[in-house]
Amino acid sequence: MLGALAEVTERVRIGPLVSPIVLRNASVLAKAAVTLDHASNGRAELGIGAGGHRLDHQLAEVERWPAVERDRRLREFVERVDELWAHPDVAPQPVQARIPVTIGGISAPTLRLAAARAHRWCSYGGYDAAPHEAAGQARAHNELLDRLCEAGGRDPRSLRRAVMLGYLYVQETPWRSEDEFHTVVDRWERVGMDELVWVYPPHAAMPEGSVTEGLFERLMEG
């Protein structure tokens, strides 16, 4: 699907959000990202996450890992991808100097990894979370990320912050009205988020009756 998008678009950046390590081999994913980078003329991005959904483990026939093991595997996976992209004998090299990496998740080890190696950190806010509670947690995460970046000699502003908003995660209903949309955007901007990730079509991520027809398209075009 990402390859097809690369063929029919010219400007938009393209990548998964996120590719779970339960279902992927680091070497294969690294090469696939380079292929996408060439197909899109340098517009590829790669999102990586620790995963954890029970169904992923069942379908992949991979045992479920405890949290400490999951965090260790995610770090090793991301380090391996970086190593392969930089390896002089791996060809072709990406079009970009480095394909931007998004690391998804909200555990403290994931935040440390994002501060050290990511272009973007993406939160999902929590499962079935109240908006103000999730936003408060995101503020705390962003403050921790700032401290981790500074401790590592990195400008905190160089790490972009994003949150995925769908009713499975945070109980926001931005498509009920234009005023509510701006309220949602303002809430997440105030806690330090640079990007909001919307699910499309909006009905797929919102409760029944909470979507005003045509509002999503009108706001995105505006």
What layout of secondary structure does this protein have?
Blueprint: H1 2-8, E1 19-20, H2 26-39, E2 46-49, H3 54-60, H4 67-86, E3 101-104, H5 108-117, E4 120-123, H6 131-151, E5 160-165, H7 178-190, E6 195-198, H8 215-221
Parallel strand pairs: 1-2, 2-3, 3-4, 4-5, 5-6
Helix pairs in contact: 2-4, 4-5, 5-6
Would you kindly provide a brief summary of this structure?
The chain is an alpha/beta fold and 222 residues long.
Written overview of the protein:
This protein has helices at 2-8, 26-39, 54-60, 67-86, 108-117, 131-151, 178-190, 215-221; strands spanning 19-20, 46-49, 101-104, 120-123, 160-165, 195-198. It is an alpha/beta fold and 222 residues long. The protein has a single domain (2-221), classed as Luciferase-like domain (TIM Barrel), CATH 3.20.20. Strands 1-2-3-4-5-6 form a 6-stranded parallel beta sheet, covered by helices on one side. The longest helix has 21 residues, at 131-151. It is globular. The model has no long low-confidence stretch (mean pLDDT 94).
